[in-house]
Amino acid sequence: MLNLLLIIFQALLMVLSAPLFVGVIKKCKCWSQNRSAPSVLLPYRNLKKLWNKQVLCAENSSYIFTLTPYLLFSIALALTFFLPWLITVNTNSVGVSGIVTSSLVPLLFRDVLVVIGLLALSRFFLALAALDVGTAFGGMGASREMLFAVLVEPAQMTALFTLAIIAASTDLNQIMHYVSVHQFWLKPSLLLTGIGFVLIIAAETGRIPFDNPATHLELTMIHEAMILEYSGRHLALIEWAAQIKLLFYFILFANLFLPSLPMAVLDFNNSGGQFLFLLGNFLTSGAVLVLQLMLLVAVLVVAEINLAKLRLFKAPLLLSVAFTLCLLGLMNHIILEVN
Amino acid sequence: MLVNLELLFAALILLTAYMLLIQRRLGAMIYTFMWQSLLLAGTTLIEAIIKHEFALYFSVFLVVVFKVIFIPYFLLRLNEELGDGSKVQYPPAALVARPFLLSLIAVAVVLFSYHLLLPLHHLFLTMINGNVLAMALAVVLLGILLMITHRKAISHALGFMMIENGIFFAALIATSGMPMVVELGVAFDVLVAVILFGVSFFHISSNIDSLDVDCLNRLRE
Amino acid sequence: MTIHIIFWLLLFTPFVGCIALAVVEKPTFGTVLNLCFAGIGFILTIALIVKFWQQSLDPSVVPSVFSATYFFARQHFFIDGLNLLFLLLVTFISTTTAWFSRFFMLQNLRERRITLRRLKLYHLLYQAFLGAMMLALFANNLGVMWVAIEGATLTTVLLISLYRTPEAIEAAWKYFILCIVGIALALFGTVLVYFAAQMLLSSHEAILWSEMVRYAANFNPSITAIAFIFIFVGYGTKVGLVPLHNWLPDAYSESPGPVSALLAGLLLNVALYCLLRFKIIVDLVNGNVLNQNHLVQYLFFGFGLFSFVFASIAMHQQNNIKRLFSYSSIQHLGFITFALGLGTHEAAQAALLYLFVHALVKSAVFTNVGNIMHLTHTQNMSKTHGLMQRCPKLAWLLLLSTLSIAGLPLSGIFTAELLTLLITFQLYPWLVLVLGCGVVIGLAGLLRNVQPMIFGVATVSDAVAVTEGPVRFSMAPTVIHLVVALILGIYLPPFAAAWLAHAARIIVN
To answer: Is A335 within 8 Å of chain B by CB?
Structure first.
């Protein structure tokens, strides 16, 4: 029971702190450019303001237009349940028959491929919604997003497959447990895959050099072009989902590729006296995670200041570099590290 | 710890080989080659420390002096004086203009060299995994690929230097360096070869006014 | 003088010559000095050979003549029957070519095709090339052999582009790139062979050929197979085997006359020698990869036959006389490679005889063509007619050398070809058909192109020499080579036959 609460608490914490994370990024970026920054709580106020506004839908839009924001948000919420970020679940207590009674989410759904699939699903529906309204900008944004999707998915899969091969399982829990215990980060396969993954994150979350999140020029937008027609709580949900996705990717990267302390293992079978021990571990790994996130935010800010948004025709080259790096990581693992 | 570092350097050497294939600006390529030679020197240094062989320290010195300092400097000066890369326009179907396809071909080459040397895996007595020899062969083959696909004359010189890097790496892994006489001879030969490259560039450039190798097409059957 | 002193003198002569020619200023003196150093090399070689055979046939010094090998410099260099044969060839051809180049280069200087500085460079590189060849022949240390071959490649690059025309520079660039990549692959193969040897020997001895031969039976067969493939491709590029031959026609056609003669007579043969040394090692390895699949044999057969057939057919399409004869070189070397692949003792003897005579006749051909070029100033065969009327001596020499190289009876090439065909008939009868057809097609290609040049009437559109004054050329080298080839074709002196048998025994056993 307590463990169930812990998992729910972990997920809720992530959902609620996503806007704070985006606010922190904005503040750091403004600091580094010597501008005065808005408060870190501004994204919360934005979401609240949007929630209270009226929802306007275009006349010729279908049910997809109204369905998409809720779908996006629920997918983002589901992702937070999948991602172990402070504690992992010990799956050794799974019975021989494979019935997983000791974890909240069935093993079937914790797979890395399911994560990728859910992200693809959200992107698909967003593109459909953009096309649904029939405006020019929506179509343009959708086609650009799909271009990036086609190139990013193989890279993403290769990166996560490399990790799966290293950890001998596609379960995200297992992978993170393995990586945190074995302190893998200096191995060449992880290093190369990590660099590729950085590029993947930039593409998936729509940051520079693929897409400028702060742009107001519609012709250069990719993600914002798809959500131009949304208003009110729909827009609030979509924005919140995007912020959760950003936080999700950052935590994924920090847990997989950066060195860290071994995470506490939540063992469902003997749950009683573990609580205090777990709480201590919770707090320490939380502190380490915050440090890692700060580091990543610093890297992101430096990159966003120094780089410019790429021309659309040059972006596939960068994504193919990401794919090649992930592929190299995979090959290096097989060639160099398996004996 | 040192073994892990050496594995890391080996992977980074292969990464620089890829980068040399994909890059198109000559200045960047020469710097990448310099990094590759530096990583090679690092690998040699680690091997020297692990195996306690004095001759390998001298090899490190040779690699650093020739391949990290002198030859990149020489090629950079040549590039400044002679080559104007913007004169060479690759047709869109050329492999160099399709870097993704080129990198996939490079991946295929690495897999092929791994497959070729797989039966020899068990022979290695060093602490390094015997598959690192496959990476050395891959670097050699990637050097040949570089020479085939690029059209600028200076890229040919870089391709040759990459082949030499790969061979040096292979000798290091397989036999912990060739005998000192041979090493000195090879280093001297490579140096003379690069100087001859420079002389040839001058000849080509003064005769044909461009360093585009496709302009050398008068002798046909 | 002991054999050691002669050896060291011989090894140092070209390098001393190189330095001496770098400081000499007057062109005529330079050419004579070049000839002197080459001649000294030749005389020392004769002395070395005499000493070698004297000591080898004396049972008190050496137990059996077949194990006669002398080592120098802590086993890094050696001489035995095989490399002495090649050494004789190298020094002889270099001497006669130096004699020829006296007149040729001075004529070029008069015609302003080269400057004084470039003549000095030419002489310097000539001696350096000769030194590198000797180093490669003497080397017991396989790494030193590689270094010498690479050194030879590097010296010839500037020799090929001596005239600095765009075509010459292109030919030199092609030669440079192809040969350097090939040689680099050969180095990789050498590293792998060293690796295979190092598992059995100490690291100082493992690079020596003589030690490798003693322990070769226990080498790991997979490593040796992979190594041999790299070595074959690498040194095969320099031998001129067909997919890798692209530099040959260009280099031969654009380089000056003496340089073509040197390339044809020396470089190809020494590269083949290096390949032979590795073949000897690899043939001794026991193992399922090599012996059951006959990897070495198939490589030699396949590449040799392919080169042979390809070159025979390609000779029909040539307009340029030097390219024609360069394809003839490829054809003959393909044949020699095939003969070496046969693997029997007699085949090796025939191959060695073929190699020797081919080198002599080919350099005779190229020196003659150089003389003709001074007369006609063009290499285009369709622009030259009626040489018999313009200069009968040159025309006769061209005719005789072409017939010699084509393999008509009375030439040494015919003898060697006949021997090889007889041996092939015993082992692989159906291949004789291919070889015979190739020989005939090659003969047709040569004669069809050369005959209009010699006979016929000189027309107005033919190229005429543009220099004023008499053109001096020397026909002596050509004549000497052809006479020696003729003698070897008709009557092989007993000591020569014994020497060939000895060298063949080294290759095959």
So the answer is: yes
